[in-house]
Specification:
This protein is α+β, with helices and mostly antiparallel strands. The chain has one domain. It has 3 helices and 4 strands. Strands 1, 2, 3 and 4 form a 4-stranded antiparallel sheet that branches. Helix 1 packs antiparallel against helix 2.
């Protein structure tokens, strides 16, 4: 299955996946690499692991050791509705940028303001 096929399957998921371990927690996927001994986020956040892996595969030519990593976010740990809204908007923006890199048309949902 190619990148475009995997991406179209990943786009069927509209929100972050719930983390079964954390109460009201969800998994956020990012693309990281090690620079100067530190893990640095290069791309993301993404809603799904497939989106993050596709992005990591595309970035391997520019960065060594790029990989998709998950982080658990939980609204109960630090309640901030603005942050929760912002991370979902950033996820949509990351999805749109990945779609452009792949040359795929992606109808974006309207943000509720």
């Amino acid at each position: 299955m190619g990148y475009k096929d995997r991406f179209s399957e990943a786009c069927k998921i509209a929100d972050f996946t719930a983390n079964p371990i954390a109460i009201s927690g969800y998994d956020v996927w990012n693309v990281q690499c090690v620079q100067s001994g530190r893990h640095v986020d290069i791309d993301g956040p993404f809603f799904t692991e497939d989106e993050a892996r596709i992005s990591a595969d595309l970035l391997r030519g520019s960065y060594r050791g790029v990989k998709a990593v998950a982080a658990c976010h939980c609204a109960a740990w630090n309640p901030d509705p603005a942050r929760e809204k912002a991370i979902r908007i950033q996820g949509l923006q990351s999805r749109e940028m990945l779609a452009r890199r792949l040359g795929v048309y992606l109808p974006m949902p309207q943000e509720i303001i």
